[in-house]
Structures are given as structure tokens and as C-alpha cells.
Design brief:
single chain; alpha/beta; Rossmann fold; binds adenosine-5'-triphosphate; binds magnesium ion
Length: 244
């Protein structure tokens, strides 16, 4: 469904993503993992059209992303950026409804969808009138998710949706996201640093290093057939410091 065709991105002399070929399957969850600065967010930004590739192209359902095709394609995507994407001066409800109001969707439809989203993301209705600063980190991430899901996107892009949450909240949110993805049957592309998150959520995992794909496949394939020593180093690093 989403194809990167030799898509690369440079900023001046710095290479954020070397020319890359990648297919992201429909109705599945693909997880991008890798070290900091390896190009994960760059891939999401390219797919969302926030930035344009320096080389190659991005295709969504066989349609190339261009300035002309972007607005229509973008409307079918939900995107949660890496951190703090809620408007601080708007309540949770206003944040979630921003685009729907702009598109002048009928108010009964909006109200029904809001109910549905609270149930889906397990956010208590009472919190909808809170401003982002009056919500916990986990609650804020749920509101961001609700906003991304408001227009029933075909594609959901999530950049570290659980970054900086405590392990208990994180574990709960992973479980909720897993059942959410199963129910939605959407194409999901999720970025994380966390192997447990990748293993639990990813049907397909893509490991990046310095702007290149090192290996991709199922979680089991990574442990059974590591493509290069870096794969083992990356996996081992996550377990370092845990007393045996
Ligand atoms: N607008 C920009 N201008 C210059 N360099 C950039 C820009 N955006 C990204 N980069 C560089 O491109 C590289 C890849 O960045 P990217 O944000 O994709 O990394 P990442 O894998 O998401 O890292 P993290 O896990 O820390 O979020 C980094 O070295 C970064 O400094
Ligand atoms: Mg990033």
C-alpha cells in the first residue's frame, strides 16, 4: 500500500535517509526501530508529505505523492508526531475536533464519533474538557491518538506514541493499542525505540541504522537470522543493565 521507491532525504550535506526501497503492507502494523538519528521520523515525514524526498518517490496505493495529490491523500492519514502535538490553548475535545469542525461535519456525527473514540482509546469522557497541561502524559497520548483517528484514516502514522511514559502506563497502552489495531484493521506505521513494543505490536519490523535499512522481517527472524552484528548489538543493548 505504501511504497518508498528509492526515496532519500538529505539536508545540506547531511544524509537523513539514503535512497531506500520499502514496501509497507496494507492492514498490518509495521514498526520502525533503530538508534537515535537513524531516519525513522524522516520516513514518517516523507510519507505524510511534511517533507519532500531529495531522490526517488513515495507512492500510496499506486499514486505518487506530489503537491497535487498530497491534500487528498493526506486526508486519509492520521499522524501522531513525536512529541507534544496538542495545542495547549485548546481543550482535549477542541484538539480532537479541530479538523472535523473545519470540514463542517454534521454535529451529531461529530458527537457520535467522539463517544466512539473515547471508548476505543479508553479515555474518560470527563477529561475532554481538560487542557493538555491538566492531563497526564498517557492521557495526552490518548487524545493525540483520538485526533489522528477522528476521520477514520486508512493509514495511521505514529511516531513514538508511548515516548516518555512510565513502564506501567506504557504496558497498558501497548495492550490497548494492540486491540485497537486489530479492531480498526488499518495500515499502521509505528516508530519506537523499544523492542518489547516492536515485538508486541509489529507484524513486520524494519531496523534502521544511519539512514539505511539493516534488516526487516518478523521479530523471530531477527533473533534467528540476524543480518549483521549490529542487529545483535541493538538487541543486546536493550537488555544491558538488567541483572540476571
Ligand atoms: N530538518 C532537518 N535539518 C537537518 N537535519 C535533519 C533535519 N531533520 C532530521 N535531520 C537529521 O536527519 C537524521 C535523521 O533524523 P530522524 O529525525 O529521522 O531520526 P530518528 O531516527 O527519528 O531519531 P530519534 O529516535 O532520535 O527520534 C538525524 O541525524 C537528524 O539530525
Ligand atoms: Mg524520531
Amino acid at each position: 500500500m505504501i511504497h518508498l521507491r528509492h526515496a532519500g532525504k538529505t539536508f545540506g550535506n547531511a544524509v537523513a535517509l539514503h535512497p531506500t526501497d520499502l514496501e509497507i503492507p496494507s492492514h498490518k502494523t509495521t514498526v520502525l526501530i533503530g538508534t537515535s538519528g537513524s531516519g525513522k521520523s524522516t520516513i514518517l515525514r516523507l510519507i505524510s508529505g511534511l517533507i519532500e524526498p531529495t531522490t526517488g518517490s513515495v507512492e500510496i496505493n499506486g499514486e505518487k505523492l506530489t503537491r497535487q495529490t498530497l491534500p487528498e491523500i493526506r486526508r486519509r492519514m492520521g499522524y501522531v508526531i513525536q512529541s507534544g502535538d496538542l495545542f495547549p490553548h485548546l481543550t482535549a475535545r477542541q484538539n480532537v475536533l479541530l479538523v472535523a469542525k473545519e470540514l463542517r461535519l454534521p454535529s451529531h456525527e461529530i458527537a457520535a464519533r467522539l463517544e466512539e473514540l473515547c471508548a476505543l482509546t479508553k479515555l474518560s469522557n470527563d477529561l475532554l474538557d481538560h487542557y493538555p497541561l491538566e492531563l497526564s502524559g498517557g492521557e495526552q497520548r490518548r487524545v493525540s491518538l483520538m485526533r489522528a483517528l477522528m476521520l477514520k484514516p486508512d493509514i495511521l502514522l505514529l511516531d513514538e506514541p508511548m515516548g516518555a511514559l512510565d513502564p506501567m502506563v506504557r504496558a497498558g497502552l501497548i495492550t490497548d493499542l494492540k486491540s485497537l489495531f486489530e479492531r480498526l484493521n488499518t495500515t499502521v506505521l509505528l516508530v519506537t525505540h523499544d523492542l518489547v513494543e516492536a515485538a508486541r505490536l509489529g507484524d513486520h519490523i524494519v531496523l534502521l541504522k544511519s539512514g539505511r535499512i539493516v534488516q526487516q522481517g518478523s521479530f523471530a527472524e531477527f533473533s534467528l537470522y540476524p543480518a549483521e552484528p549490529f542487529v545483535c548489538q541493538f538487541f543486546d543493548a536493550q537488555l544491558e543493565g538488567v541483572p540476571s
